[in-house]
Amino acid sequence: MIQRLIPLMVVAALMLLFLGMMLSDRNPKEIDSVLIGKPVPDFSLASLLEGAPALTAADLKTGKPVLVNFFASWCVPCRAEHENLMILAGEYRVPLIGIAYKNEADKARGFLMELGNPFSKTGLDLDGRVGIDWGVSGVPETFLIDGDGVIRYRHWGPIVGDSLTERLVPQLEALQ
Amino acid sequence: MIRALTALLMVLSLSLVAQAVAVDEKPLADPVKEAQARALMKEFRCLVCQNQSIEDSNAELAQDLRMVVRERVALGDTPDNVRAYMVDRYGDWVLLRPPVKTSTYFLWASPFFVVLVILLVVLGRRRSAAVPEPLSHDEAARLAKLLGNGK
Question: Domain range for residue A127?
Fold first, then answer.
C-alpha cells in the first residue's frame, strides 16, 4: 500500500517545494554579498566634480549611516531608481555617495545634470576595479554603511517598486 | 563534392575561431603563468552569465575579472591566493567547484543519498515481489481445461 503512495508523495513534495520557491521573493540572480558586516574596502577615486577632493574609504566613516550607490549613465535601471535616490536624499536626509561605475566623467555628469544630483560626494570608477573590490556584479547596487564604516546591507538591483519602503528604509531605520 | 569539402573545411575553421576565446586580450608573456591563469579562469563563475565560467563568458565583468586573474598570477599569487581573492569579494558562489564545508555537506552528500534511497526502494520491491504460491489442484485442472479448449 505504502509503495503505491510513494509516487504521489514524491509529486506532492515537489509541488510544495516549487510553490515555496514561487512564493518567496528570492531572485536566483541575486547573490548574497559577503561584505556584510565587514568594513568598507580601501579605495581612492577621483571626484566627478573637477577640483573636488578624491573620494576615499575615510569619507564613508562619518558617525552616521550613509548610502553608497554604484551607477552609470548607460544603465537603464539606474535611471528607473533615480527618483527614489532623490527621495532618500531629500525626504529621508541620508547622505548619498555616488560611484560612477565604468562610466566616462562627462557622461556621468550629464546623467546627474539631467535627472538631478542626490549625491553629496561622488567618485569615478572608470575601470570598475573598485566595483570588483566591493563585489559588485552590475549596476545599480546600493550599500548601506553604518557610522563606523561597516557595510550593513546591500541592495542588489534598482530600488524601484516597494523595495524602497519595504527593504531599504527598514534597514536604514534600524541603524538610525 | 569538392564544394562540399570546401564548405566543411570553412565551417571547421570557423569553429576554431570560436574556440579562440578572448582574442582581444593580452595574454601574459610567460606561457606557464598564462596557462595557470587560464586554468584558474575556468574555475570562476561569471556573475553575469551565471552558468558560464569567466573564461568563456563575453560579459564585460568577466573580461575585467580575467584581467584581475592575470594580474594576480603575474604578481606571483598561488592559485589558492587567487581563489581567496575572488571569494573575499564574491563569496563561495564564485567557485564553480564548491568547497566541502558545513554549509555544503548536504550538497556533496546528496548524490550518495539519492543512490541510497533508490537502492532501498529497489530492495524493498524485490522482497515484496515474492514468488507466487503454486497453483492448487483445482486451479491446475481449470487451467488445463482452458488451454485445452483454446485449441
Answer: 28-175
